[in-house]
Amino acid sequence: MYQVPNDPFFGVLSGKEQVLVLLPPWKTDRQDAAKTLTWVQAKLAPIVTDIWNIKAVVGLVDTRKRSWIIDRAWESVFAVFDNLGVDKNDDD
Questions:
Q1: In the chain, fewer beta carbons within 10 Å around the N or the C end?
Q2: DSSP assignment, residue 18?
Q3: Structural domain boundaries of the chain?
Q4: Residue 11 in 3-state DSSP?
């Protein structure tokens, strides 16, 4: 959880709590792991984003001196984030 500073700069998020994630992007030469075998050529500088921006979850398998991306379950598994009864319009 991250408490956004109470500053007009942050607009409607000012003073609110947000769930943030630290993600390490991977260089793959634009290959799509859902369509072809894809290995991580390099790990890029991590980025921070709001958890609501996550659209899919993939995995890595280390073998034969490479890290391969596993993304084969798109048709049966996908990331879903539930509000857990939280009303986004609630000011509390």
A1: C
A2: E
A3: 25-82
A4: helix
